[in-house]
Amino acid sequence: MNNPSFQKIEEIIGYKFKDPHWLERALTHSSTNDEFSYQRLEFLGDRVLGLVIAHALFEEFKDENEGGLAKRHTALVQGSTLTTIGQAHDIGEHIILSEAERQSGGHMNENIISDVVESLLGAIYIDGGYAAAQAVILTLWGDTIKILEEAPQDPKTELQEWVQARGLGLPHYQIIEKTGPDHAPSFVIELKIEGEAPLTAQGTSRRQAEKIVAEKMLERLKQ
Questions:
Q1: Partner of 200 at 20 to 30 A CA spacing, among 17, 26, 55, 164?
Q2: CA angle 143, 149, 153 (to 5 degrees)
Q3: Is 46 part of the annotated catalytic residue set?
């Protein structure tokens, strides 16, 4: 299968597939209505990643207790870390999407990029075994394994703690607009907190839009 996009992915991850159909499956989004998509490989890749990172932390931090290792592990396998790694290597540009999904920004969608990073790890595990998947993960994650101590706080959680510390009511998120087809929706969320003018933000999922508008509100409050 002589596909330049597939060859580029193999260069990025440092692994050449024996059976390139696994790579194709790992990159195929469900919007294509293809018989195979990346979802099952994503499930497997998540478990492979968890084990490899746990083993790496066990070896790297020999004197750290279980709680410390667990915080590091959570930070390294969470979606935002996967997205950051995927974006750094332009993984989104190589995802196989329907035309409608691509035009709606699917190749930039954080959740999709995160999922595809996991599906690629699952595909490598199937194609080359644990050692191959381990080598790719340790290369892509690099020094992050040594320096990322805990998961960054979610902006919605940070905002909630901010208002509670000041005796204000909880943040209120409301969908004010939902457009687009089911496979490529767009949400506009309005956020209200006591004493502040409302803010809105748009995202490809309710969760993403709420996260963006919480970040915007925190930026305003910290000025």
A1: 164
A2: 120
A3: yes
| pLDDT value at residue 194 | 92
pTM given for the model:
0.72
- What does the pLDDT average to over 33-45? 90
Q: What is the strand order of the sheet 172-179 is part of? A: 172-179, 186-192, 199-203
Which entry of 42, 101, 115, 118 is annotated as an active-site residue?
A: 118
19 an active-site residue?
A: no
- Say if residue 98's pLDDT is above 90: no
Task: Grade residue 1 by pLDDT with cuts at 50, 70 and 90.
Answer: low
Report yes or no: 186 and 202 within 8 Å, Cβ to Cβ: yes
Residue 124: predicted pLDDT: 98
What are the boundaries of each domain within the chain? 4-147, 155-222
Q: Which of 46, 101, 110, 115 is catalytic?
A: 46
Fold of 155-222: Double Stranded RNA Binding Domain (3.30.160)
Q: How far is CA 206 from CA 39, 175, 179, 202, in A?
A: 21, 8, 12, 9
